[in-house]
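[job 4471] stage=fold_predict status=RUNNING
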Amino acid sequence: MKYAEKKVKIVRVEYWSCNNPFHHHKTEEIANGCIQKSSNKKQDAAYFLKISQRNDWIVNLYKKGAKKADLARQFDLSGTRIHSIIGKFERNERNMISDAARKNRVL
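[job 4471] inference complete, writing structure tokens
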């Protein structure tokens, strides 16, 4: 009578890292290209401050009656991006109102 036997197979996987924990590149060239791409993006605090100020400006103009299409042309963004900036602001505003109401509620 034959019995099943346990076998172990170890597979060695080599990959190149680009310092992004979600990326596993097969070649060094691809990893270097990814590093080059990510270094082109400005990820410093000043860049995020500028983006935040731009988004605040977009929301304020929209509140004053500007159309989304006009804002997209003015800021050289897509209409979808303008829509998502305004949507994010509106969601945050709703959450702040509901949080304030929750805090003031008497139990």
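[job 4471] summary: Residues 45-104 form a domain with the Arc Repressor Mutant, subunit A fold (CATH 1.10.10).
[job 4471] exit 0
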